[in-house]
Specification:
The chain is mostly helical. The chain has helices at about 1-5, 15-30, 35-40, 45-50, 50-75, 75-95, 100-115, 115-125, 130-160, 165-185, 200-210, 215-245, 250-275, 280-300, 305-335, 340-365, 370-395, 400. It folds into two domains: about 1-195, Up-down Bundle (Growth Hormone, Chain: A), CATH 1.20.1250; about 200-395, Growth Hormone, Chain: A.
Length: about 400
């Protein structure tokens, strides 16, 4: 098998990194523009938030089907079609004349951009042994953090000096460039395509996992902690621009604190998870999450009067995400290692879907205040802590708790 891998032309890691950044860039470059597009398209903020919510819904469902499609039809055609859909739908978003057209474009943009996350990981597994693959996926994951860090700054400046449509022109151009690069440099890496996609068998595996209490506990842990973050994303740009008077570009700079918090959490996970065990890391992550939420509740009580009041608590929350998510995912995939692929797909779906639900709740209860955002973050944080105390501590192996 290794001999066969050596004869497959390997794409440059830069191409894989660019592909993996497509979806997070499209998600985050757009956030600073949400207040301005609300006015531009003559809609309300609740409706405009559907451009975020339904993006996440499409991203969640796409994760379930793109992998199997590439197993049958090959990595290259599925990836090229996905990137093409991403570029064209991004351009369609730029030409949207009403909010319905924009929402539709965002759904296709998410589904197309998802190939950058799903298919590139499959390509890496096709080409490298597990140790080398882990190293390359580590680089790609790092970009998944750096892309959200820089994208709001770029989007903020584009919105400030052009308008919200400029961000979609930008990501469409990026998509076209990456499509051309992929068309020339990316060869087919799936040399053993499956004959048929057995969706019945696939969903049976999901049914097996759902009945595993331990698995569902870990999935709930990473999903609820992620929902805290997405609840913040749903309303942070409006609070920053309308209540704190920040320019869209300034929002992007403050958002760096959030990205740094997430990077710190991932660093702590890498340094201490093996020594302390995943279950203890989840516990410590929930402690950090509690600190962030307590600070957020306090500053919300005295009112947000400075950007740091909004972004410092969120830095703690992002750090907790960086601690909780890797350990929860690792434990979840270890419950049934014989179907780890299905476990990973279901975990990714649940994580993104929970984020979509959080943004939907914030939008539905939007009243012009910070209360819907803060209340949703609090609720998701309480559920994350509850999951650890009630489910994980009771089902985890004893050696992981001591």
């Amino acid at each position: 098998m290794n001999h066969q891998k050596d004869h497959i032309p390997k794409p440059h890691i830069a191409l894989l990194i660019m592909l993996s950044a497509l979806s997070p860039v499209a998600l985050n470059i757009f956030i600073p523009s949400m207040p301005s597009l609300t006015a531009s398209l003559n809609t309300n903020y609740t409706t405009s938030q559907l451009t975020l919510t339904l993006y996440l819904v499409a991203l969640a469902f796409a994760q379930l089907i793109l992998g199997p499609l590439s197993d049958k039809y090959g990595r290259r055609p599925v990836l090229l079609i996905g990137v093409a859909v991403y570029a064209v739908s991004s351009l369609a978003c730029a030409f949207a004349f009403n909010i319905e057209q924009l929402i539709t474009g965002r759904i296709f943009q998410a589904a197309g951009g998802c190939v950058g996350v799903v298919i590139t990981r499959a390509i890496v597994r096709d080409l490298y042994d597990k140790n080398k693959a882990a190293s390359i996926i580590g680089y790609m994951t790092m970009i998944m953090v750096l892309a959200p860090m820089s994208a709001p700054i770029i989007g903020g400046y584009i919105d400030q000096y052009a308008d919200w449509r400029g961000s979609f022109y930008f990501v469409s151009l990026i998509g076209l460039i990456i499509f051309g690069y992929s068309f020339i440099k990316l060869h087919e890496t799936n040399k053993n395509p499956i004959r048929d996609i057995d969706f019945v068998a696939m969903f049976k595996k999901y049914g097996i996992l759902i009945r595993q209490k331990q698995y569902m506990g870990y999935i709930a842990s990473l999903s609820f902690s992620s929902a805290v973050f997405f609840a913040f994303i749903a309303d942070a740009s409006r609070i920053a621009t309308e209540q704190l008077g920040l320019l869209p570009s300034e929002y992007g700079y403050y958002f760096i604190l959030v990205s740094l918090g997430y990077m710190l959490g991932n660093f702590l996970s890498g340094k201490f998870a093996q020594r302390l065990g995943n279950v203890k890391m989840i516990m410590y992550g929930n402690i950090v999450l509690s600190v962030g939420i307590i600070v957020l509740l306090y500053v919300n009580h005295i009112e947000f009067t400075h950007p740091f009041y909004l972004f410092i608590p969120m830095t703690f929350v992002a750090c907790s995400n960086g601690i909780i998510i890797p350990s929860s995912m690792a434990e979840a995939l270890s419950v049934r290692p014989d179907i780890a692929g299905s476990a990973s797909g279901l975990a990714g779906f649940t994580q993104v879907a929970s984020g979509a639900i959080a943004t939907l709740i914030v939008g539905y209860f939007y009243d012009g205040s910070t209360t819907p955002m803060v209340a949703t973050m609090l609720g998701a944080a309480v559920l994350s802590i509850f999951t650890f105390i009630v489910v994980i501590r009771k089902t985890a192996p004893l050696q992981n708790l001591n």
